Amino acid sequence: xxxxxxxxxxxxxxxxxxxxxxxxxxxxxxxxxxxxxxxxxxxxxxxxxxxxxxxxxxxxxxxxxxxxxxxxxxxxxxx
Length: 79
Fold this sequence. Notes:
Blueprint: H1 2-23, H2 28-37, H3 44-51, H4 59-69
């Protein structure tokens, strides 16, 4: 069941992360650098997979992204 939920959430969360990044005029490499400053160590490849819905972001990543994007946590889960 958890796998089925993840299959539906991954693309939603990933596309929202990509949308928020682009709305703020940020490059993926900028976001990755800021995540690493926040103690979230992620590679370019993993971040790309998150944005494309192929990997789950960690809770730590989502929390850090709320600060980077200055957004509400719920924005990652909007359809």
